[in-house]
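Our consortium's second objective concerns turning raw sequence data into structural hypotheses that experimental partners can test. To show how far this objective has progressed, the report includes one record in full. It was chosen at random from the queue rather than selected for favorable results. The single chain below, 68 residues long, was entered without modification.
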Amino acid sequence: MPEPLPSLVTVIDPVFRSGRYLAVGAITPGLLTVRWHVWDTAGSYVGFATDPGLISLVISRHEHERDR
């Protein structure tokens, strides 16, 4: 997986917090959509969503995989 936030990205507001998770929207040159990158409070990269409404799905998937 490539580095979640390369140095050429533009971070956009707002930043979303959901319990133990933080999601930051970023525009990456060459991509047509904003990606919302999600980390947990331990600093582990969880994944990304292409819409703020999908952040909870990324978190749910991460928690499901972690509990296996």
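The partners drew two points from this record. Residues 55-66 form the longest helix (12 residues). DSSP finds one helix and four strands in the chain. Both points have been shared with the crystallography group to help prioritize constructs.
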